[in-house]
C-alpha cells in the first residue's frame, strides 16, 4: 500500500491540492472507497478509526471496543481498493504510525492499488510515513503573490489609489510567498479604504514578536490584533495564562481557533474580523468541560464562519450571560441551547434570529438588541421567551400568534420606550 506525502509550510495549499486530487473524476473512478480524515495534532488510534469509519459510511460510528472497531474497519475495507487522505498530520511517533498502518493493511483479495495520501508541514513525518518521495510545495514568487493579492484587495473596474498599491506591495513582501496569507490579507484590506488601515497591517511586527511572547503569570487581559502568522502561535497557549479573564482576537489570519475553552478564568471573549475561520468546533473547546466561567462572548464580522458546534454532552457555556452576534452572514444555525444567556445582541440576520428563537435556543434571556433586522415572524406557540426589553435600530414589523408572550414587551429606540411600528397578531 503506497503512502504519498504532500509537504510544505502552513498556508501553501497542501490541503487544497489534496482536495483537488481527492475530487478528481479519474481518482473517483479508480477507487471503490474514498475517505478523508482531518488528523491535526491528536494522532490517537481509536479516534482515527472512528473518523475513518464515519467518512466511509457517512454516518456516526459509536463503537468503543477496540476489537470490534478493528472488525468493522476490516469489513469496510476488505477486497476494496481505497484512497485514504490524512490531512494535517503532526504525529512523529513511528510506533503509532506502524500500528495504524497494520490495522489498515488487513489483507484480502483485491487490495492492490490502495493509496494513502498525507499532508504534513515537515519532511520528518513524510519520510516516516511515506513509501515514495514526498511532493514538496514551494512558496509563490513575489509577482504571483501580487497577482493574487490585487485580485482580492482591489475591486474590479475601480481606479486604484497609488499609495494603497505601494503599501500593498510592502504587505505582500511580508507574506513570504504563502498564498493563504496573501489571500486572507487581500480579502481583509478590500474593505479598508484608508491608508491608515493599510499601514496598520504593513507596520505590524506581530509575526515576529507574538510566537516568542513571555506573559506575566498574573496577566488578566490580552488583545492580539493584526497577527498575520499562518497558524495560531502554540507557545501562547502553552504560557501560564491561568488568570487570564479577558481575551480579544482581532484581524488575525489563523485558520483554526485554539483550545480557548481550557483557559480556566476566561470571562470575556471577543472574536472580531477573523476572515479565515469557517468553524467554531471541538478544537475551540478543547474538551466537553470548557468555558466554565465565560460570561460574555462576541462574534463580530466573521465573514466565512459557517458552523458553530457545541462542546458535547456536558452543559454548554453554563455561565454565558451576554451573547453578541454581528455580521456572520454564512452562519445559519446556532448550537442547541444557551441556558444562561439573558442579553442577546444581533445584527443583520433575520433568519438566524428567528430560527434560534423558535427552536428554543434562548429560553431565559430578558433583553435583546437588533440592528438591521427588518422583521420577525413567529409561527409557533410557546417557544418565544418572555422578553422584558428590546432595543431595535430597524425592526419595523413583528408578526406573532396571539398566545406568544409578547404583550408586555416594549421596544426601545434612540429615545424612550415605544411600541412597535407595526404589530400583527395572528389568531
UniProtKB/TrEMBL annotation:
Signal peptide residues on this chain, from the entry's feature table: none
Any single Pfam family the record assigns to this protein: LRR_R13L1-DRL21
Sections of the chain in a coiled coil: none
Gene Ontology terms, MF aspect: ADP binding
Domain called R13L1/DRL21-like LRR repeat region: residue spans: 190-273
NB-ARC domain boundaries: 2-156
SUPFAM superfamilies linked to this entry: L domain-like, P-loop containing nucleoside triphosphate hydrolases
Keyword terms: Leucine-rich repeat
InterPro entries, per database record: LRR_dom_sf (IPR032675), LRR_R13L1-DRL21 (IPR056789), NB-ARC (IPR002182), P-loop_NTPase (IPR027417)
Protein name: Disease resistance protein RGA3
Organism field: Platanthera zijinensis
Organism taxonomic ancestry: Eukaryota, Viridiplantae, Streptophyta, Embryophyta, Tracheophyta
Gene name for this UniProt entry: RGA3
Amino acid at each position: 500500500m503506497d503512502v504519498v506525502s504532500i509537504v510544505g509550510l502552513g498556508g501553501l495549499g497542501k490541503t487544497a491540492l489534496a482536495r483537488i486530487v481527492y475530487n478528481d473524476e479519474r481518482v473517483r473512478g479508480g477507487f471503490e472507497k474514498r475517505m478523508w480524515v482531518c488528523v491535526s495534532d491528536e494522532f490517537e488510534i481509536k479516534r482515527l478509526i472512528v473518523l475513518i469509519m464515519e467518512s466511509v459510511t457517512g454516518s456516526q460510528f459509536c463503537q468503543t471496543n477496540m476489537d470490534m472497531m478493528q472488525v468493522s474497519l476490516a469489513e469496510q475495507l476488505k477486497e476494496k481498493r481505497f484512497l485514504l487522505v490524512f490531512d494535517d498530520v503532526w504525529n512523529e511517533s513511528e510506533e503509532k504510525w506502524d500500528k495504524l498502518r497494520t490495522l489498515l493493511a488487513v489483507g484480502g483479495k483485491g487490495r492492490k492499488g490502495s493509496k494513502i495520501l498525507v499532508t504534513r508541514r515537515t519532511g520528518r513525518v513524510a519520510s516516516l510515513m511515506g513509501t515514495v518521495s514526498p511532493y514538496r510545495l514551494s512558496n509563490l514568487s513575489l509577482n504571483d503573490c501580487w497577482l493574487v493579492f490585487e485580485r482580492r484587495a482591489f475591486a474590479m473596474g475601480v481606479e486604484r489609489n497609488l499609495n494603497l498599491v505601494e503599501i500593498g506591495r510592502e504587505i505582500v513582501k511580508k507574506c513570504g510567498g504563502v498564498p493563504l496569507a496573501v489571500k486572507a490579507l487581500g480579502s481583509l484590506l478590500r474593505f479598508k479604504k484608508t491608508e491608515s488601515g493599510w499601514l496598520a497591517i504593513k507596520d505590524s511586527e506581530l509575526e515576529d514578536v507574538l510566537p516568542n511572547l513571555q506573559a506575566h503569570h498574573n496577566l488578566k487581559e490580552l488583545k492580539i490584533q493584526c497577527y498575520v502568522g499562518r497558524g495560531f502561535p502554540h507557545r501562547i497557549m502553552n504560557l501560564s495564562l491561568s488568570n487570564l479573564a479577558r481575551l480579544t482576537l482581532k484581524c488575525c489570519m489563523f485558520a483554526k481557533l485554539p483550545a480557548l475553552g481550557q483557559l480556566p478564568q476566561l470571562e470575556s471573549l471577543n472574536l472580531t474580523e477573523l476572515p479565515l475561520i469557517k468553524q467554531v468546533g471541538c478544537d475551540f473547546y478543547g474538551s466537553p468541560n470548557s468555558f466554565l466561567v465565560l460570561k460574555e462572548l462576541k462574534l463580530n464580522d466573521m465573514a466565512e464562519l459557517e458552523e458553530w458546534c457545541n462542546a458535547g454532552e456536558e452543559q454548554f457555556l453554563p455561565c454565558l450571560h451576554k451573547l453578541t452576534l454581528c455580521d456572520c452572514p454564512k452562519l445559519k444555525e446556532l448550537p442547541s441551547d444557551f441556558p444562561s444567556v439573558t442579553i442577546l445582541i444581533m445584527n443583520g440576520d433575520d433568519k438566524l434570529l428567528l430560527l434560534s428563537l423558535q427552536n428554543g435556543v434562548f429560553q431565559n434571556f430578558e433583553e435583546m438588541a437588533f440592528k438591521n433586522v427588518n422583521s420577525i415572524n413567529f409561527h409557533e406557540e410557546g417557544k418565544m421567551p418572555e422578553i422584558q426589553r428590546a432595543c431595535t435600530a430597524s425592526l419595523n414589523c413583528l408578526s406573532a400568534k396571539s398566545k406568544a408572550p409578547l404583550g408586555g414587551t416594549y421596544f426601545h429606540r434612540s429615545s424612550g420606550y415605544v411600541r412597535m411600528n407595526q404589530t400583527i397578531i395572528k389568531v
